Amino acid sequence: MRRLYVGGLSHSITQKDLKDRFGKFGDVQDVELRTRRDEEGVPYKTFSYINIDISDADLKKCLTVLNKSKWKGGTLQIETAKESFLHRVYQVKTLC
């Protein structure tokens, strides 16, 4: 299982769009779609975290095909998601 960060998304993208697009490379388990808005409610950044069951070879193919590609008015930026600081702190506390 991999967790991917996908940035550069158009504000009109849906979870289904992402499942369909990434489902060609692996089994999409979960899609978190987030849009940041300014103080007036205008969206300025849309990104996603995708949990996907994918082999190393298919991940490489996915990154080669989709990273920096144009899609629905945005340019995709895809990378393996970094583990959040809070998640790491929680793991350390549970292990101690």
Structure explained in plain terms:
This is Nucleolar protein 8. Keywords: Nucleus, Phosphoprotein, RNA-binding. Its main location: nucleus. The structure is a single chain. With 96 residues, this protein is of the alpha+beta class. It has one domain: 2-Layer Sandwich (Alpha-Beta Plaits), CATH 3.30.70.330. Helices cover 31% and strands 38% of the residues. It contains 3 helices and 6 strands, in the order E-H-E-E-H-E-E-E-H. It has a 4-stranded antiparallel β-sheet, covered by helices on one side.
Structural class: alpha+beta
Uncertain stretches:
none
Helix content: 25-40%
CATH superfamily: RRM (RNA recognition motif) domain
Overall 3D form: globular
Largest sheet: 4 strands, antiparallel
- Extended strand count: 6
Q: In DSSP terms, counting alpha (H) and pi (I) runs of 4 or more, how many helices?
A: 3
Q: Proportion of β residues?
A: 35-45%
- CATH fold-type name: Alpha-Beta Plaits
Subcellular location: Nucleus, Nucleolus
GO molecular function, one term: RNA binding
Keywords: Nucleus, Phosphoprotein, RNA-binding
Subunit structure: Interacts with the GTP form of RRAGA, RRAGC and RRAGD. Interacts with NIP7. Interacts with DDX18; the interaction is RNA-dependent. Interacts with DDX47; the interaction is RNA-dependent.
